[in-house]
Structure formats: C-alpha cells, structure tokens
Design brief:
The complex is a heterodimer.
Chain A (H helix, E strand, L loop, with lengths): L8 H26 L3 E4 L3 E4 L1 H9 L6 E9 L4 E8 H12 L5 H31 L4 E2 L3 E5 L1 H8 L7 E11 L2 E11 L1 H19 L11 H6 L1
Antiparallel strand pairs in A: 1-7, 2-7, 3-4, 3-5, 3-6, 4-8, 7-8
Helix pairs in contact in A: 1-4, 3-4
Chain B lengths: L26 H10 L3 E5 L5 E4 L1 H7 L3 H4 L4 H4 L8 H10 L4 E3 L23 E10 L2 E10 L1 H24 L3 E6 L4 E4 L1 H7 L3 H4 L22 E6 L5 E13 L2 E10 L1 H47 L3 H27 L7 E5 H16 L3 E7 L5 E5 H17 L5 E9 L5 E8 L6 H6 L17 H11 L3 E6 L5 E10 L1 H12 L9 E5 L3 H13 L3 E5 L2 H10 L4 E5 L8 H11 L5 E5 L6 H7 L4 E4 L4 H14 L1
Parallel strand pairs in B: 12-14, 18-19, 18-20, 20-21, 21-22
Antiparallel strand pairs in B: 1-2, 1-5, 3-4, 4-5, 6-7, 6-10, 8-9, 9-10, 11-13, 13-17, 14-15, 15-17, 16-17
Chain lengths: ~220, ~625
C-alpha cells in the first residue's frame, strides 16, 4: 500500500515539468500585476514525508515563517502551501511594491500582499494540475499563517494525514532580487491515485504521435498552459 | 437551499446553510437585501457576462444596472483587462478557483468613486472572486469591499503613532539614517537630506556607503560610538560622530545611525588643548626666567662691584665681558618672558628710527637673501613712548610674517610717519607676498590662529603684537588682499620732540648722586640680597636687609626708613605687593621700589599698586637702581 503513495521518478519529473509551466504562468500574472518582469522556477520536486518536509522548510532551525494556504477539493483534494521565511517574505513584498516604501510600511501590508501573491501562485499550480487531470478543482480563498514550520503544519495538515507531501522549492527573481521559498502540496489519498492515473494517461499521450502534429514532445507544455 | 437563480451546489459549500425557521425569507426579500448591501456584488455567468449588478456598484461606478447586465466586465471597464481581476474571473469559471485581490498591491481594480457628495475620491477596494453555480453552470461571484475607511483609519493611526517620533526626528539638527542589516537605506530625516543634499526618495533602496563610504555593511555600526570623516553637500569634509541603535521589526534587524557633525567641537577641543599647553608652558617659562633673573642679578651686581674696585684696565675688560654675558642672558630671559606674555612693560622714550634700524640688524640674517628691506621716514625724528624690547619683538614678528608670506622672495617696505594731529607715530610694514583671503584676515590676530605648518609658528605672533600695541595705548591694523600682499600698521603714542630731548638730555648727563638714605631691603634670595645691599651700600646709603615681609613690617615700625626696596616674590605668604600696601597703610607716603624677576603680580593687585610703586626689573644695574630710587623719592 505504502509504495502506491509514492510517485516514481518519471511521475515526479512529469509533475515537476507541469508545475514549472504553472509557475511560469503565475510569473506572467505577477509581472502584469506589478509592471515588472518576474521570473520564477521550480528547480526540484520531491516526495517527502511530513517530518522531512518540516525540517527542510525550517532550514535546520526553527524560525519565523509566513505561509499562504488554500484547501482544494473535488476529484483531487488536499491543501497547498506557499512558504517563505518571514524575512524573505518582506523582501518579496518589497520587490513587488518597489523600493519606494520603507520596510516598516511594507510590514503593514505584508500579510495582505503575501496572501495575494500566494493566491496567484497556488492557483496557477492548481489549475495546471486540473488541466492535466482534466477535472475541476474547487479551491478556497487563501489564508495567511505565521509562525514556525511546526505551528504552520499543525494548522494546515491534519494529524491523521495519510497522504503524501509533494515538496518543491521555488525561486523568484524580481527587480534583480532573488527570493527563495517552498511550495508544499499535501495530497489526499484519492489525489495521489488520480494523479498517477492522469500521469499514466499523460505518458501514453506522449508515446502516441498526435495526428497533424509532428512535435509531440511539446504536448505536456500545451496541456499545462 | 438557495432560492431562485442564485442556486448553488458547489462541492466545498462556500454558501452556508440558510437560516432555518418557520418562514425562510423569500427570493424577493433576499434580492432587496442584496440591493441594500454596503458592498459591491456582481454575478457573472459561465460566459463571463454580467448577470447581476447591485445598487452599490451602480452608485459607485456610475454604470446603471441596465447597461451592466449582459455586458462583459472588460467591455465596461477596459482598464480591468490590465489587472488581475479578469484572470481571476476566468480561473473561477474554468477551474473553480477563488481569488483575493487587495487594494495594497493592485492598481487596476474597478474604477469606483466614493460619490458621497463631499469628495470624489476613488474607493480603496479589495475584491473576492469565487466560483458559483449559476443556472446549472459555473459562474462567478465578485464581492467588492470598500476599504476606504479602514485605509484612512490606518493612515491616521500610523500618523498619530509616528507624530511624536517624527516631531523629534524631523526637528533634530543631527542626521538620522535607518538601514537594514545589509546596509540598504530605509529612511533618512530632513537634517540628513540637507546635510548630504540627497532626497529620501532618491536614497531609498540605496546602500549606505553612498553616504558613508567607509561603511561596508551594518556590522560596521555594532560597536557603539564611531567616528569617521564624511563629505557634506558642499563637498566639505566633516568629522562625524556616529552612534547607533538597533531594533528588530517583523524579523528584520534595522540600525538607526545618529550622525553628528563634531568638526567644530573637535576644533574647539584642539584649541583648548593648545591653549592649555601654552598656559602651562608659560608658567614653566616664567618660573625659569624668575630664577634666571635672580642669578643674572647676582652676577651683574657683583661684576659692577668688582669693576669699581679694579684698577687694572685688562681685568676691567674681563669684568666687562662678564657683564656683557649677563646682559645677553637677560635678553634671553626677556625673550622667554615675551613668549609667555608675562613681560611687564617698561615704557621709555625711544627714537623710532633707531629701534627699527637695530631690529633690522638683528633680523637681517633670518630674513634671507631673497627678501629686501627698505625703511622710509616721513617728516623729522619720531619718538614714541614704549617698551624697547617689546617694540623690537613686535617689529621682528611683523618682519618674519612678511618673510613667510614671500616664500619666493620679495621686498618689505617699512614706513615711519606721524599722524596729522601728531599724537601717534605710525609704523607700517608692507610686504609683496601672497596676501590673505578675507576669512583668514579676519582671524589673523586671534591667539593660536596660524596658517603656518605645525611647528613653524605658535600662532601667537600677531596676537602678541596687537596685545603690546594696545597695552602701550596704541592700535593695530592689518590690511591684506590675496595676491597683493599684506600691510601691518601699528600706531604708538608719540612723544613731543621737546620732551624727548629733555629726557634724552637727562640720560646723557650723569645725575648727581642721591644723598645717603636709610633703606630697608627685603629679599629672600641671600645672593641677590647681598648683591643689592652692596650696590646700595656702595652708593653711601644705610641699608638694613631682611628676608621676608613680616620682619620688614616689624622693622619699619621700630625704626624709621626713607625708602623700602623689596622683591615681589617673598616667602611666608606675604608678597612684595602686599608688603608695599601694608607699609603704605602704616606709613603713608613711604617711597617703595619693587624688584621683579618677571610679572608675578596678579592683574588685580597690579592695578591697585602700580600708580604708587616703582617697578625695577631684574637684572638691573646700579644706574637703573639709582634712577628708579630717584623717581620714587622725588614723587613723594
């Protein structure tokens, strides 16, 4: 049973590619919002157990983090978190609103801005998943959490969670500033199974050349975008 | 179940159960409530066309419901296409995602106006977009919240919170700069804007090294008080004292730097240090000169006694050599004293041209070959009333200043003249040197002001000249222009030719010796005491010598004396000045002569006694002593 909860290497790579396309899409949305070029990438995707995900997020010592979370439901359910160290989240917000504001003033609107940035990024990831799965994902409004990784996980992941955690780092580049954070997808059991099925279908689609389209390898990107 | 066409059956149930009761409100009631809401409600269908547009939206957008219903949002408000709202609506309809869009980071939301009849300000809005089932398909519910009041409230709270802080910080004369831990400038106060000539808006986000080149990062300011040299808006370097406070806000460690310009303070401290050094040097020099003058006194007095007893001309020449050496020693101590400004003035009538000529002879070797010097005298022979040594020193000072102003050589022109009313003699020393700019000229006579390299000048030259001239009842002026040289002019009280001639004549004739007198001599130094006693005794006077003032007062009381001759510095707490005053109180009219190694008298006491006491400067010769005694005795 347990090995079924883990995506294999090919599946993880496929999800990584999918999410890279998704965050690129949110980069476009963010760029349009702030009128500046925003670049984003998801270099690594891993399946991690809860404790290891927690350790990675905290970077070796408990520090103050900011997370934006959304719950999603439907054939594919679970929750999604975008996590930044608090200090870096201020940098991110400053990069978004520009240097014309002092850090003090930025701190006052940081939660609001972070919520919105998280909303944009997480929605991109979720809609990418939904597109690939060919289903609808209903998502709640984003909520903002602050605290240590442990505190945030306790509020967003059920103790009885028996699903898997899809864990990825995300790198931003705005106004020549680089900001690094993490995206955490906590998938329920049904989500993993559905994801595997969808990935199998996606892989099969890659194998069969589509009629009238010789460049079949682009199929993944098209499907995601 | 939701009534009417707003029926929704979303999977995660964003619509809570409607209140259960005997009579659930009708669709008409609910619709009226929607119309009455103090927020915007828009419902779009699966094709993103507007299905419902409530009254609040009509009122604030200016678009009536009949125009809105059926239209697409981007058609009504083209600006929306730029922002996030359009995409959020698309996501909600196509995928089922919700979105929160805040006023703080989005510019292109609904173009809404407050429309409250007072001001037409834009509405600060935040928007929530949710999927909603409409007529069997997924549409979208858009809720628009008016955040204007809370935005205004927050701003007001922030202003109130910051008011006192800013009142202090913005009125401060010191520069305040706040940086984060990587050294990025977060804020500067108006004083800093003025000091560095940079505006806050331009500096936000810049690195602090832009203002403080020596500061690599914030760690430079962890050590409390730091001093560094900075450059202000005018490009002038100044000494900055920087104290730092750090604080943490929202997990970010910030530093506030308090930058104080301490250039003037440092200068004042340096000047004070310099002046204290000169003061203690002056005391030291005064003490040495005093001891020295006593020794010279003994030498000179004894040489004179020796000479009067020597028949052999060759031996007399030897004695003269000793006397000359003692005189040179006296000149040396005078120089030291004038440096320490403890020189009591001994005004005498002087032929100005002679003094200038002697001084030039003295100065010639030091002026150097590149500097030529010419003296012009207007009118006849001029006499002044002044201290010879001090006058020489003053002229020397002016000559050396002129030389230093002409490093490449030049000429010095000395003009001696009388003013029109013949009350003053004018000595003008003009050079062809570099001259001084107005700011230097203004300070040139201040003590310790010097443009010369450290070690080359004391900064006392001109201040001494001015002090001497004023003390002699004259005045001193400087004129200068850069590139056109400097002229220094001293006016000294002129003595009429007749008086000068009489005085000169009197000096030439040897006055008849004084008749024998009973003299009380008070001197603590045994060698000086016996030397002076021998001098007086040799002139035929009856001398009684004692060591201190108390003894002297007792003797004055017991025996009668014609004259009191006392040293200024006496032991056991009674100075010569005090003794003179006490003696005068007991014996009004008693002639008193004080002998002084240097000006030990404090100014208040000097003022009290100078008019009735004659001062004799050590070392003195027998004629000096005779002259002063005569003056003292004649005056009574």
């Amino acid at each position: 049973m347990s090995e079924e909860l883990v995506l294999d290497e090919f599946e993880t790579d496929a999800v990584g590619e999918l999410l890279n396309v998704a965050v690129s899409r949110s980069a476009v949305a963010l760029s349009r919002m702030i009128g500046q070029t925003v670049a984003m990438s998801v270099p690594v995707v891993r399946m991690l157990p809860r404790d290891e995900a927690l350790r990675t997020i905290e970077g070796g010592r408990p520090s103050s983090l900011i997370a934006v979370g959304e719950q999603f439901s439907g054939p594919f359910s679970g929750s999604a978190l975008l996590v930044f160290p608090e200090l870096r989240s201020l940098r991110l917000v400053q990069a978004i609103v520009g240097d014309g504001m002092s850090l003090e003033d930025i701190a006052e609107l940081a939660e609001e801005a972070m919520t919105e940035v998280g909303n944009i990024i997480l929605n991109s990831c979720l809609s990418g998943m939904a597109n690939m799965l060919g289903c609808r994902i209903e998502a709640t409004l984003p909520s903002c959490y602050q605290g240590t990784g442990e505190q945030i996980f306790r509020r967003t992941i059920r103790d009885s969670h028996d699903g898997s955690i899809l864990f990825m780092s995300i790198d931003f580049s705005i106004r020549n500033r680089d900001v690094g954070g993490y995206i955490v997808l906590i998938l329920d059991l049904n989500a993993i199974n559905n994801l595997r099925e969808a990935l199998a279908g996606y892989a099969a689609g890659l194998m069969e050349p589509k009629p009238g389209n010789g460049n079949a390898n682009n199929g993944g990107v098209n499907a995601a975008g | 179940m939701p009534p009417g066409d707003l029926g929704a059956d979303t999977a995660f149930d964003p619509a809570p159960d409607l209140p259960e009761g005997p009579t659930p409100p009708s669709a008409a009631v609910l619709l009226r409530c929607l119309e009455g809401l103090d927020m915007g409600v828009v419902i779009v269908d699966a094709r993103a066309a507007i299905l419902y547009w409530n009254h609040w939206m009509s009122r604030h957008s200016g678009v009536p419901r009949r125009s809105a219903v059926g239209a697409r949002l981007e058609a009504l408000f083209p600006s929306i296409a730029q922002g996030r709202l359009a995409g959020a609506v698309e996501d909600a309809i196509a995928t089922g995602l919700s979105a929160y869009i805040s006023n703080s980071v989005n510019a292109s939301l609904f173009p809404l106006l407050r429309n409250d009849g007072i001001v037409d300000e834009p509405v600060a809005q935040s928007i929530v977009v949710r999927p909603v089932q409409v007529n069997g398909a997924t549409g979208c519910l858009i809720q628009v919240f008016d955040e204007s009041a809370s935005v205004a409230r927050e701003r007001k709270l922030r202003e109130q919170r910051n008011a006192r802080y800013h009142a202090v910080i913005e009125a401060a004369q010191d520069s305040f700069v706040t940086i984060d831990e990587s050294g990025i400038i977060q804020w500067i106060n108006p004083a800093a804007e003025r000091k560095f000539g940079r505006r806050l808006d331009d500096l936000l986000g810049s690195h602090v090294s832009l203002l403080l080149p020596a500061a690599c990062d914030a760690s430079a300011f962890d050590g409390g008080l730091t001093e560094m040299t900075l450059v202000d808006v005018a490009g002038r370097a100044f000494d900055a004292e920087i104290s730092t406070s750090h604080w943490t806000s929202n997990g970010v460690r910030c530093h506030t730097l308090f930058i104080r310009d301490v250039t003037e303070r440092n200068q004042a401290a340096e000047e004070l240090r310099q002046s204290q050094r000169m003061q203690s040097l002056g005391k030291l020099v005064g003490g040495i000169a005093h001891e020295f003058n006593n020794l010279l006194m003994v030498i000179r007095a004894n040489v004179e006694l020796l000479k009067s007893d020597l028949g052999d001309a060759e031996l007399r020449d030897f004695a003269d050599e000793i006397a000359q050496a003692a005189n040179r020693g006296a000149t040396l101590t005078n120089g030291l004293l004038s440096f320490a400004r403890k020189q009591p003035l001994r005004p005498e009538t002087l032929a100005l041209a002679d003094v200038v000529e002697q001084t030039l002879r003295l100065a010639a070797p030091t002026l150097g070959a590149l500097v030529s010097c010419k003296v012009e005298q207007e009118g006849g022979t001029l006499h002044v009333e002044a201290d010879r040594t001090q006058l020489q020193n003053a002229i020397l000072n002016l000559l050396f200043n002129a030389r230093d102003a002409m490093p490449l050589g030049g000429s010095i022109r000395i003009v001696l003249a009388s003013d029109e009313e013949e009350r003053f003699c004018r000595i003008r020393v003009a050079d062809t040197g570099l001259g001084m700019p107005p700011d230097v000229l203004e300070r040139a006579c201040e003590p310790f002001f010097s443009t010369k390299d450290a070690g080359r000048g004391t900064g006392l030259g001109l201040s001494m000249v001015m002090g001497f001239v004023r003390q002699s009842g004259g005045r001193f002026e400087l004129e200068s222009e850069p590139g056109r040289g400097t002229a220094a002019t001293a006016w000294l009280p002129r003595v009429r030719a007749a008086a000068a001639a009489r005085e000169g004549g009197a000096e030439e004739d040897t006055p008849p010796p004084l008749p024998p007198r009973r003299i009380l001599l008070v001197e603590d130094d045994p060698q000086v005491r016996s030397a002076v006693q021998a001098m007086l005794g040799g002139a035929g006077h009856a001398v009684t010598a004692v060591e201190d003032g108390f003894e002297a007062l007792e003797l004055l009381d017991a025996e009668g004396f014609d004259l009191l001759v006392s040293d200024v510095v006496l032991p056991r707490g009674m100075s010569g000045a005090l003794l003179a005053r006490e003696a005068r109180l007991a014996f009004p009219g008693l002639p008193v002569v004080l002998m002084s190694g240097y000006n030990e008298l404090d100014p208040a006491m000097t003022a009290a006694i100078t008019e009735s006491v004659d001062i004799l400067r050590k070392p003195f010769s027998r004629p000096d002593l005779e002259r002063v005694m005569r003056a003292a005795l004649v005056a009574r």
